[in-house]
Amino acid sequence: MTIFVDPDARGVPGFNAGTVACSTLNTDGASVEALAPGSHTFAIFGWRTLSTGPQLLYRTHSPPSYLIEAGKTANVFVSAESPP
Description:
By secondary structure, the protein is mainly beta. The chain has one domain (1-23, 38-84). The chain has strands at residues 2-5, 15-19, 38-50, 53-59, 65-68.
């Protein structure tokens, strides 16, 4: 799964914050570090690699917005659904 920060309303993903496993030791989640303080939106895209190239399995349709404060940790819940 790929994590994107600040995707726009047109579906442009934004800043690629990295690719992580969908689940690690039965825990869903990942860390994004070094974000500037302020309001940010977050999205995830899930891909499967086929012989013809990557296939999008799921993505965030409505990216949630969170206020990020300097020096603090924020838990952000981001859902993803099948593409339309």
